[in-house]
Amino acid sequence: MSSESHLSPSQPIPLHSVSHWHDEADAVVIGFGAAGACTALEAARSGARTILFEATSGSGGTSALSGGEIYLGGSGGTPMQRAAGFDDATEDLYNYLVAAGGPNADAAKARLYADNSLDHFHWLMAQGIEYRNSYIAERCIEPSTDDCLIWSGSEEAWPFVTQAKPAPRGHCPKFVGMGGGRYIMDVLAKRVVEAGVDVRYDSRAMALIVDDSRRVRGIAVRTGGEVRMVRARRGVALCAGGFVMNREMVTRHVPLLLRSRFPIGTVDDGSGIRLGMSVGGAAVNMGEGFTTVPWYPPGSLVKGIFVNSQGQRFINEDCYHGRVSHYALQQTGDRIWLLQDNSTYGAGELHGLARIEIGAAGDSWAEIERELALPENSLTATVATYNRYAAEGKDPLFHKAAKWLKPLDEPPFVALDCRIDHCFYSSFTLGGLDTLPTGEVLDEDHNVIAGLYAAGRTACGLPRWGEGYSSGMSLADATFFGRQAGRRIAAAVA
Predict the structure, then answer these.
(1) Same domain for 81 and 32
(2) Cβ contacts of 462 within 8 Å, gap of 6 or more
(3) Domain stops at, among 417, 450, 474
(4) What element of type H or E holds 8?
(5) What does the alpha-carbon distance between residue 416 and residue 341 come to, in Å, rounded to a whole number?
(6) Which segments of 270-322 are extended strands (E)?
(7) Partners of 198 in the beta sheet?
(8) pTM
(9) Whole-number Å distance between alpha carbons of 252 and 230
(10) pLDDT value, residue 57
(11) Enclosing domain of residue 475
């Protein structure tokens, strides 16, 4: 057996070199975020003896850093959707998920989730996660109250509105203040312990163990100051997060995210993905990531327009804040401005966090243009074109919805400074291991790698396209497909 210094997530350990097992279980789960919790929970409840290893000293992972939104709907709607007057058809949820998944959307996962999303909502409630039957119609990133239903994506915005009937699907837990992800993880962690899962903290996965047929037989884990060989009789599930904290991997796969200086994650070093790739697992959509600067509320800011360093618009501002930010990152230069007039401007409650400040103010757009040192007639021409069409209720260039169209013609005018090199542009990765909806990891030929499963950001699930991401998709994907993986492992032949 190689020494610990030679162990690497990128190099599996041959089964014949393992002299003895230190531990064994039916299911071995790596990572105690939402995906790992739900995988372990379902495996244990299905009768599989389960060990869950977590690299840090507590549960939560990146899931606990989230706002707690879970993207839910279909089957006519959740109780919150119905009470708010929305009849959310399963086909509309499915079509939106496919559109949001982008060119490489996983239709099979979208189908399974859309068909079972309402049942998943009831499962979440059965675990003890509470939801208030309330709806916030105004644009927000996440509620600061304990309200539930919000618009958390681009459902009403072009081009998605042309592909599926819109409905709000962001379901936030009954938790006062921002950061409901910690609350959700605490509830799930209690259920994991109650189910009898053997949880081991401060335990880092080092390398997978495979036999001559490439079947995964176990995993080497560094815990308690030593490396232990852990046999997995039915399978290993990788739920170790994405790779946004591994800047070398970000540079290699999705360098655009390097412009975002605030990666969101805990460990998220790509080790789970590398473990899967070490035994032939295919990684897909590795060039995709999410980024955002929280530029609203108030919702009136959506009636303004974004311009780049050439004074040109580049997006319909009524889409999801992450989609706007994704396009902002693609612009030449670091300068991004959000133009407002006296009737639309409002100091956003998140602007302190986002570091958004007034970059210029004046009584005419020509004055704003000069103050921003933009080319003559660049910004003024952009605003004049926008205002002319907005007065007619049209936006032929970017298709902003009519309810957000308003000529920016009431002085004083301001340009909010949303520059990329200063403001809080946060990010995480969306690429990961290719899996079946059951969590089984696939190789480049789309064959199942026996004994290996993945869920959460270690896998490439529903959220896989930066331009289509909606808040709540990550937790929806992690909890739902973690459950599928757990049940599949428990049903596997030992």
Answers:
(1) no
(2) 97, 100, 101, 106, 109, 110, 113, 473, 476, 477, 481
(3) 417
(4) none
(5) 11
(6) 283-284, 289-292, 305-307
(7) 51
(8) 0.96
(9) 32
(10) 97
(11) 4-65+181-290+428-491
Integer angstrom CA distances of residue 282 from 11, 34, 87, 286, 429: 15, 23, 38, 10, 16
Two structure tokens written together for 110: 């979208």
Residue linked to tokens 């596997």? 492
**Do 231 and 338 reside in the same domain of the chain?**
no
What pLDDT digit, counting tens, does each position of 196-216 carry?
999 999 999 999 999 999 999
Is residue 422 domain-resident?
no
Selection from 225, 227, 230 nearest residue 198 by Cα: 230
Domain check: are 364 and 402 in the same one?
yes
Residue 388 token pair: 């002319």
Ramachandran angles phi, psi of 115, nearest 5°: -70, -25
Here the CATH number for the domain that contains residue 34 is: 3.50.50.60
Tally of domains within the chain: 3
- From CA 229, how far away is CA 213, in angstroms rounded? 19
Give the integer Cα–Cα distance in Å for 282 and 14.
20
Rounded distance, CA 397 to CA 405, Å?
Answer: 13
pLDDT tens digits for 273-324?
A: 999 999 999 999 999 999 999 999 999 999 999 999 999 999 999 999 999 9
Beta strand 305-307 with 440-442 is unpaired
Residues 233, 258, single domain; the answer is yes
Express each pLDDT in 363-403 by its tens digit.
999 999 999 999 999 999 999 999 999 999 999 999 999 99
The C-alpha atoms of residue 358 and residue 345 are separated, in whole angstroms, by 11
- 219: amino acid identity, one letter: I
322 and 413 together in one domain = yes
Better-scored residue on pLDDT, 5 or 189: 189
Q: Report whether 387 contacts 400 (CB < 8 A).
A: no
Length of the chain: 494
